[in-house]
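Forgive a beginner's question, but might I ask you for the amino acids of a protein and the tokens describing how it folds?
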Amino acid sequence: MATGVGVSSCCLSGVIHDGKPTGREETVAGIQTYIAEPSGDSKSKSIVLITDVFGWKLSNVRLSADTYAKAGFYVYVPDFHEGQSLPIEFLKSVEPPLKEQAKLGTIDRAKNAATVASTLGPWLIAHREAHTKPKIDAFINHLRTVPGTNKIGALGFCWGGRYALLAAHGEVDAAVAMHPSLFTVPGDFDPITKPVSIALGDKDSLVDATSRGSIQDTLAKKTDVPHEIRIYEDQVHGFALRGDWSDEKDKTAMDEATQQGIDWFKEYLA
């Protein structure tokens, strides 16, 4: 029986990180793309970063790309939303930070739920798999033709996490999915043929213990495919990208999740 995982207000919450991205914008395969280059500019180990619903301009996303570039990867962050990402203002003003959400009363929670439904629902329909996956596949196929490119990885967060899993069906050489959403079990996991690493928070409102167990059971049957699932204590959906840098435990979890992805790609894009 397939189990579906959806979305909630956690997808639309979190903290905007300080810092100035150091990459550049360029059009790649007809798509506006943020590029973070490693020292020496080698494209041998390339990563396609598939964003959450807030898109390629979010500073958190670009700073993450810069971090992977410093670790030796050539990182592309394409605008697969085609200029239609949810606005940053929605993250900062409509959905409060996670700690504040915990203090909300019933009425405020209901208002937030209504806002999520009215904002996120239509967006997800417009950017459904039938519309999005062909663009991602075409972008990856284009990178295969770029001189100097050897292996390609997919790194996805939240909404993009599912597309990283789908890319592990064979389009890329390895994938990392950080707190993916909107996936089905076993449907999205059975076809995986490439090494995949998954990071989840144990307080993720979208992926409960039952769903985590179903993922683990499905991947355990794939003895010929390298895989790992790491569970982060006291972390919610979105923690690896939009956690609170001022909170020591959250910052540690973000750093460890980033290192998880870097280590995985270093091994399987080598």
About this structure: The radius of gyration is 17 Å. The chain is about 40% helix and 20% strand. Residues 3-87+125-268 form a domain with the Rossmann fold fold (CATH 3.40.50.1820). Residues 93-97 have pLDDT under 50 and may be disordered.
